[in-house]
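Q: What structure does this chain adopt?
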Amino acid sequence: MSGVFFEDSNYCHNSYATLGHKKNLLIKDVMKYRLLKIICILMLPIFLNCSKSDDSVPELTQELLISSFSVRTPDNWEWEQDQGIDTFIGRIYNGEDTIFFDQGYLSFGYLEDVDESDRTISFQRTTINGVPAIIEKAKTSDEEISRDIRLSVYLDEGEAGRQNRLYTYDPIDEKAILAIYRSHKFLARVD
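A:
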């Protein structure tokens, strides 16, 4: 009987060992699951931010007709003419950003007059709706204004008075500003 008891005791010992091994595996599996869950929760904000495209530009749903040119903007933008002497000036604004414009022969001269400098951050010669243009991002000088960055577009259709410079300081929504710049069109002359 003692031999049977020994066998039963050994059987019980092996059963407990197997049960203990299974318990350890179960605990490890639960710990792995919890660790994976924690990692997923910690990574969720990163994945959510990745799903929001930084390249998104607000829809340019309205066209602003401004004297001899037009631009497309999101709905909440307006324009206002300012008092100029030798050029037509004004601003296009929404509550966060303001784009100033200076149109006419004396606004900047010619595209050949626009050069890069030691304050230039980016400088791109391009064409906007068939018109030669330069898009420039530059640090402002201390004498110029108490802002850090000026983002400008220079457009020169080639005819006298068909030059336009649009610019903003420290843009909050740079992608929207650039999209508005790229929508610029000179209107047909009415003679």
